[in-house]
Design brief:
This protein is α/β, with parallel strands linked by helices. The protein has helices at 13-24, 31-40, 44-55, 61-71, 90-103, 117-125, 165-179, 181-188, 201-214; strands at residues 2-6, 28-30, 81-84, 109-114, 127-130, 136-138, 157-158, 192-196. Helix 1 (13-24) packs across helix 9 (201-214) and helix 6 crosses helix 7 (165-179). It starts with a strand and ends with a helix. The structure holds adenosine monophosphate.
Amino acid sequence: MKLILLGPPGAGKGTQSVELCKRYGVPHISTGDILRQSVKAGLPLGLKAKSYMDKGELVPDEVVIGIVAERLKDKDTEKGFILDGFPRTVKQAIGLDEALKGIRSGIDMVIYFQTSPKVAIERLTGRRVCKNCGFNYHIKNMPPKKEGICDKCGGALYQRPDDNEATVLNRLKVYEDQTKPLVDYYSGKGILKKVSGDLGVNDLFKVLSGLFAEAKLA
Ligand code: AMP
């Protein structure tokens, strides 16, 4: 199962990736997570990426293509993977095609999470993340039992610096300008499937599981 989850920030790609990886036993490759870990660890990659991330701009293509090309060489990706938040530009998609050519066959399916801006904005601005285990909450839709504390591990919850309203609006604009053209790119390859990113977590998971069964990916 080699999948790309495509859609605006706030579409629920990250949440579904975690569940899908658990169910299908393939690794979750999120460029956003890799970049945030590099920022946290104070690595040169993180220092380079931080200023773009704080503004909601895209980190340069060659940087993220390099990250993913390296990650796809790891043995755990042999039986498949879920790419979340990559590619985000046509140049990155071409870079991914190149990287896969050298290693193994191409992507099986690209799932486009069609999501209304209102839903995406509400999800992102209300999101809270555990500093310790990374689990995601939402102040209205999925609040923790005790405010500011992770149910799973007791870690402190925080708001991602790029989840403030102004940066969220810019991230959605960047998505429209630079990432949405990928819908046509993958549609032209005949591997794009559309789902509604406005659905709740469980309903969307059922739709996705149905798609994979139909395509005999699972
Ligand atoms: P995400 O967690 O996917 O919302 O990504 C957070 C931020 O990381 C984005 O707003 C970008 O600044 C950066 N980022 C993540 N993935 C990519 C990518 N594929 N290309 C460029 N920048 C990225």
